[in-house]
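Re: that backbone. Tokens:
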């Protein structure tokens, strides 16, 4: 005796997506069900390939189906389709994600590079726009320094492609070391061009590395595209948190949802395994809790992270087991989860 399809669907309807807090059936996440004797094969369509809850969903599906008396074996496989919002951020681009910080030197660019690379590594289509006009460093982090951007016949910019990420950086537009003192209209014009005249193709996530602080670029970005969300990068100490608070306030004023906080340089692990809390402790967690924001990660200080940034290969790719890489990959998945939640919440109620 096999279970009926109706019974299987009813059982699957008891399984909740742990982040989206709705059941898999009403979320349309059950792509296929095949029943063969006592074996049920289920294909679940995740809302992001970088899903942080995959293992939990798998275990819940197996448990729910095994509760049916006829079911002996459950095979769960996954596909993924990033869900956009009714209005695409840019043609073909489902989500623009901004990475900001209150001040420079907290590792914002390093985090942005690794978030982009980690999302791509999980199978998402990812672009990275380095809009940090005061210190563009993504060309170095992706070892495309000095490469000129090319345009097609219709003057559309062809992004560089490195480590699975489509990349545009302001550094590739100007001569090496040229001081960038762009302000107001020129800045707005350049950003418009980079966002709208680039052949991004189809992207699940376009990560934008913002300049530190609360300046013109952030304002322009908010005016030019619908930003799905912003991540704030900070170090644990109070002074950085004062700055991050200003960045947070600015994001709220420009109606950019803040999806979470990443604390960088959280500790340095000493040879005896203890943690040296070089930049203090707990500040970012307290800030996140007060503002009811998810703390997406605490990234330890490691020599590997610094070296990989200098070597031009994001650490999540060059040394995935490094503790900083593990924390960054987890942060990328939690961020992708937050984007899915955000996308679901912006869908019109039917
Ligand atoms: P920002 O973009 O905030 O100005 P960067 O990403 O350029 O900061 O980082 C500043 C420096 O700190 C870089 O040399 C980078 O390699 C290093 N760095 C950032 N985060 C870490 C970390 N967790 N461990 C070790 N070095 C780090």
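Recovered sequence:
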């Amino acid at each position: 005796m096999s279970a009926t399809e109706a019974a299987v669907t009813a059982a699957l309807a008891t399984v909740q997506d742990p982040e989206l807090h709705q059941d898999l059936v009403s979320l349309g996440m059950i792509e296929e069900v095949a029943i063969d004797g006592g074996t049920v094969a289920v294909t679940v369509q995740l809302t992001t390939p970088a899903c942080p809850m995959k293992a939990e969903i798998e275990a819940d599906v197996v448990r729910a189906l095994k509760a049916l008396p006829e079911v002996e074996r459950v095979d769960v496989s996954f596909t993924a389709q990033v869900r956009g919002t009714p209005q695409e951020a840019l043609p073909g681009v489902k989500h623009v994600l901004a990475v900001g910080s209150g001040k420079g030197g907290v590792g914002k660019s390093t985090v942005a590079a690794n978030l982009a690379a980690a999302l791509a590594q999980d199978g998402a289509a990812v672009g990275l726009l380095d809009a940090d006009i005061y210190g563009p460093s993504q060309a170095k982090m992706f070892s495309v320094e000095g490469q000129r951007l090319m345009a097609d016949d219709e003057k559309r910019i062809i992004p560089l492609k490195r480590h699975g990420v489509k990349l545009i950086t302001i550094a590739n537009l100007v001569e090496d070391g040229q001081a960038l003192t762009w302000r107001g209209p020129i800045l707005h014009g350049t950003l418009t061009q980079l966002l709208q005249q680039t052949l991004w193709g189809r992207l699940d996530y376009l990560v934008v590395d913002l300049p530190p602080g609360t300046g013109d670029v952030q304002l322009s970005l908010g005016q030019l595209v619908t930003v799905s969300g912003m991540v704030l990068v900070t170090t644990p100490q109070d002074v950085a948190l004062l700055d991050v608070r200003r960045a947070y306030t600015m994001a709220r004023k420009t109606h950019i949802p803040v999806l979470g906080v990443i604390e960088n340089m959280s500790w340095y692990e000493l040879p005896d395994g203890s943690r040296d809390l070089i930049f203090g402790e707990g500040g970012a967690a307290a800030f996140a809790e007060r503002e009811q924001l998810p703390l997406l990660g605490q990234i330890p200080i490691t020599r590997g992270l610094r070296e990989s940034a200098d070597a031009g290969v994001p650490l999540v790719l060059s040394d995935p087991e490094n503790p900083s890489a593990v924390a960054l990959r987890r942060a990328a998945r939690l961020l992708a989860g937050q984007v899915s939640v955000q996308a679901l919440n912006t869908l019109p109620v039917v």
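The radius of gyration is 22 Å. The chain has two domains: 5-80, 93-346.
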